[in-house]
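Example record

One chain of 416 residues, shown exactly as stored in the release files.
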Amino acid sequence: MDKVKKALRFLFSMQFALVILGLFVLVCIGGSVIPQGEIQAVYESAYPGWSGLILATGLDDVFHSWWFILLTLLLCGNLLGCNLLHIRPILNKMKQKTRPLPAGEDGLVFSGDPETLLKEMGFGKWEQIDRGRYAIRNKIGFWGAWLTHLGIFIIILGFALGQMFTVNYTVYGVPGEEKPIGDTGLQLSIDDFSIELRPDDTVEQYTASLTLKNPATGASWSGQASVNHPWDANGLRFYQNSTGWAADMAVYKGEELIQTDTLCAGEYRAVEGRPELLVMLRAFYPDYTQDETGMPTSASGSIVDPGYLYMLYYNGELLGMNVLRADEKITVSDYTILFSNPRSYTLIQIKRDPFTWLAGVGGAVLLGALFIAFYLRTEEIWLMEEEGHWRVYGRSRKGSLLFREKLAEKIKEGTK
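Predicted structure tokens for this chain:
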């Protein structure tokens, strides 16, 4: 039994908490640095020689790995156990009317009126003790450290549960498009997308104006998402993640326009009525040129001489690939395909974290705990009667030195 108690004390100790916190921080850093949830080829390309270890240990999906869950449980168990161990002593302190005189402290000599001293030190009432008086105020201060631990516990629990159960969606498109958000039944309308440039033509900010719609209820929400400034609506958080190029594709059969589509770079569409014939906008070069090896590239980021790199597939086989310039066209059989109206698209990352509120509750508890610990700190005073004077002892759970200096000042004033 003693060994079990000793083991539990270690598991609920500050030393064990610091070890787990250190590991927890390292894991979170790893999860932030290493891309999460990518396919194996991404890790093999970005981390040659290390990709096998990353995949085997779950570093490609840190926040859903069994060892992250274990670390979270250990840390939460440590904080919760620590609080459970200390709740009874705190309750006992709250019930006590008097507390023993602190050992090993030198009291201050006071020859004035004890009632006046207690009042000036902020003590409204006192208790009679052997050979003297005892007063305490702000007993709630005993709970400061306990509530601090509780707040940290709730924050970590909310963060961990959020990471494990957060659902991510991705929507991308150009202004005027409306796209479904995964399986939520909601629609996201991209109302506008702007790129702010600095004087040197480098990007200052990306901003997307968005409207979230619920077709089932008719409800809608409007707002903006920009880099480092997400937008919150209906329990979802919208991040301006990235951008790229898009263009309009027009398909003619003979002289008749039979199809128009907007393609973002990397997207493809089947020709209307010919599902075996696919057209892909592989890349777009706003100021088309070729490098020294003859590969297509862009001389600048401005649309000067647009080039559209397309790929044409028939029954899964590559039929053709080239760069279209200006009004050049793709001709296959009696179909004519051309691209126009190049513009930027926005990629919006959407997250649903069902435990954000829990982290908020933890933050509120932590702020309240810090207020209690530093501004409602428990203060105690003992006045022990001696021959012809009083010997005064004071103690404060926080700011003890300041409290004793104030006590010494009041004693000096009351002794005059």
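Notes: Residues 307 and 325 are 5 Å apart (CA to CA).
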